[in-house]
Amino acid sequence: MAIAMTPALASDRRPLALGGVLLASPFVQAALSGYSDRAMRVLARRHGAAYALGEVLLDQFVATAKQGRKTPPRLALAAEEHPVGGQLMGANPDDFAPAARRLVAEGYDVIDINFGCPVKKVLGRCRGGFLLSQPATALEIVGRVRDAVPPGIPVTLKMRRGLDDSAESRDHFWTIFDGAFARGAAAITVHGRSVEQRYRGPSDWGFLREVKRHAGDRTVIGSGDLFSAEACLAMLTETGVDGVSVARGAIGNPWIFQQALALVEGRPRPPQPTVFEQREVLHEHWALAEELYGEQVAGRSMRKFAIKYARLHPEHRAVRDAFVAVKAAADWQAVLDHLYATDAPGRDPSGDIDETAQCGADPQEEQ
């Protein structure tokens, strides 16, 4: 897909703003359960993401997580990643306010609310996307969070286009969308799929265009089918949204942000990272994960990232199979020494779309 934005058109775009938080570019890393921890967010920021959201966090977990000398890994922040957002999910409006206050106390700059998760277990507990069928409860949650945090902390939310494609779901979407802004939401991210679709089928960018037209000057961030820098630029130009939220497309591919930034600035898109450039970031990611979790937990955590990184390697199947066996730092280094020892052009992974990464599962209950 050959798309370019001229420098004049890039300069005409207004800055992406989350209330008083102004972002340097329109490119955001989404909240991803089991993935967007501090290590992934730091790498995204180092590679051009203007803003990143932490893993989806259950409100009850956040409110009750132990406070002490060491912050729990899921809440841990790095100085270099500000501004950073924390995303909350739950069912009971009473649980959101204490969780939001805890995130502010931990240093999060923005509080985001998840009304989009399509995972069956989450829906069965009346969380995430289920709340799109309950406008009164959803809006009470928005109001509770807005009232709980200081005025300078933006409150945002993530929605899908509806529970399904019924007229009732469409009505509920607009009730929540307009009602959230009326209650002080600073921005809303809209995914172009319905909850019923989960991760199947195309994201409806036509709906995103309709939403932005309706929103006017209110900040709308688009989401869905962003697996390449070209797709990020296409969503901006075709729908008019103020920013784009990259989810699965950023797992194992932080370079997508610097590539998208080049296109929006009217520059040629940088090539896929070479094998040696990939090796450098794989070293970097392991070190960040080990610092966060310790070696044993980092070994378990990094395997799922490594499988995604492998897609950029010209021998991606062999690399993937080698990373699956990694358990410790020595294993990780052995794969790099063996399979990343010779430089070569990187592979384009944008066609390797799968449904294994979920943007809103509930990892706190899976431990």
Overview of the structural elements:
There is one protein chain. The protein has helices at residues 7-12, 38-46, 59-64, 93-106, 120-124, 135-148, 167-182, 205-215, 229-239, 255-264, 275-293, 295-309, 316-324, 329-339; strands at residues 17-18, 21-22, 27-29, 51-58, 84-89, 110-115, 155-160, 187-191, 219-223, 243-246. By secondary structure, the chain is an alpha/beta fold. The protein folds into 2 domains: 7-269, Aldolase class I (TIM Barrel, Alpha-Beta Barrel); 275-339, Non-ribosomal Peptide Synthetase Peptidyl Carrier Protein, Chain A. Strands 3-4-5-6-7-8-9-10 form an 8-stranded parallel barrel, surrounded by 7 helices. Strands 1-2 form a two-stranded antiparallel ribbon. Strand 4 (51-58), helix 3 and strand 5 (84-89) form a beta-alpha-beta unit. Helix 4 packs parallel to helix 6. The N and C termini lie far apart (42 Å).
List the helices and strands and how they pair.
Layout: H1 7-12, E1 17-18, E2 21-22, E3 27-29, H2 38-46, E4 51-58, H3 59-64, E5 84-89, H4 93-106, E6 110-115, H5 120-124, H6 135-148, E7 155-160, H7 167-182, E8 187-191, H8 205-215, E9 219-223, H9 229-239, E10 243-246, H10 255-264, H11 275-293, H12 295-309, H13 316-324, H14 329-339
Helix pairs in contact: 2-11, 4-6, 6-7, 9-10, 11-12, 11-14, 12-13, 13-14
